[in-house]
């Protein structure tokens, strides 16, 4: 299941509180073009470990993006969980996926699940409850060798689907596939331990995005809903959630 009709007009200024349900995925779009005096103030929301991590970046731009993304994540999760941003407890799964530390939250806090991705001038945060969710954004590179990369990383079915697209649609098809695959990896938390060719997504950018097949779980793909949506010119993005019949809301973060 999927939706392909989500464009720039669907992004709205974020409103609190966000309604939380298992069949609703909130996507929060972050823009990184903040003046230095504004984004540096956001470091106050980070933990000491996160501040040390930010300080290790050699250049200002990646440091800026890390600070803005992590501070915004803390604000979003804090609002969803009813705690201040600085007190949002985060752990990391066995493959590096960030997750809430439930043992440090009260029992009545909603079971919030989330995923984070950033590329170029944008970051995305996906939020839902009680089920796995993943999100990915990629800045599209027109010079990328789409067919060669697809042959290397995609399944044979996906590589063939991409090769059969008109030449002018292959770049969009490649990034449709790549973001959908990354969203699934992030949702499962398996990261690079799962081969990109071991599951199949829909490549054609003119068809609804979808998880088509999983090699070792042939009955699992219908359980997932995939969305591809418009973040901005020159970008591709997708989210995947383990819930049939879910829907999506697109929000712009206001710093």
Any overview of this molecule?
- The chain is of the alpha/beta class and 255 residues long.
- It has a single domain (2-252), classed as 4'-phosphopantetheinyl transferase domain (Ribosomal Protein L22, Chain A, Alpha-Beta Complex), CATH 3.90.470.
- 28% of the residues lie in helices and 26% in strands.
- The strands form four sheets. The chain has a five-stranded mixed beta sheet, covered by helices on one side. The protein has a four-stranded mixed beta sheet with strand order 1-11-12-8, with helices on one face. Strands 4-5 form a two-stranded antiparallel sheet.
- Helix 2 packs antiparallel against helix 3 (60-81) and helix 4 runs antiparallel to helix 5 (156-163).
- The longest helix is centred in the N-terminal third of the chain and has 22 residues, at 60-81.
- The model has no long low-confidence stretch (mean pLDDT 93).
What would you say about this model in short?
The protein has 255 residues and is α/β, with parallel strands linked by helices. It has helices at residues 36-41, 48-55, 60-81, 146-153, 156-163, 170-188; strands spanning 2-3, 12-13, 24-31, 90-92, 98-100, 112-119, 122-129, 133-139, 199-201, 211-214, 225-229, 235-241, 247-252.
Name its key features:
single chain, alpha/beta, Ribosomal Protein L22, Chain A, 6 helices, 28% helix
């Amino acid at each position: 299941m999927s939706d392909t009709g989500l464009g720039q007009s669907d992004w709205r200024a974020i409103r609190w509180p966000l309604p939380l349900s298992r069949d609703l995925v909130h996507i929060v779009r972050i823009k990184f073009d903040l003046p230095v005096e504004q984004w540096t103030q956001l470091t106050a929301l980070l933990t000491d470990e996160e501040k040390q991590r930010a300080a290790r970046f050699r250049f200002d731009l990646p440091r800026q993006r890390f600070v803005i993304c992590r501070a915004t994540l803390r604000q979003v999760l804090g609002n969803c969980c009813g705690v201040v941003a600085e007190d949002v407890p985060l752990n990391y799964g066995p493959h590096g996926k960030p997750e809430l530390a439930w043992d440090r939250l009260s029992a009545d806090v909603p079971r919030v699940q989330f995923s984070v991705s950033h590329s170029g001038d944008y970051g995305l945060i996906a939020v839902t409850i009680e089920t796995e969710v993943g999100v990915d954004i990629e800045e599209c590179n027109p010079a990328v060798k789409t067919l060669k990369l697809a042959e290397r990383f995609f399944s044979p079915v996906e590589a063939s689907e991409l090769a059969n697209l008109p030449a002018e649609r292959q770049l969009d098809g490649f990034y449709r596939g790549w973001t959908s695959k990354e969203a699934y990896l992030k949702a499962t938390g398996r990261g690079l331990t799962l081969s990109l060719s071991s599951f199949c997504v829909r490549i054609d950018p003119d068809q609804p995005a979808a998880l088509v097949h999983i090699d070792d779980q042939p009955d699992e793909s219908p359980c997932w809903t995939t969305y591809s949506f418009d973040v901005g010119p020159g970008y591709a993005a997708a989210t995947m959630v383990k819930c049939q019949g879910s829907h999506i809301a697109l929000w712009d973060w206001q710093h």
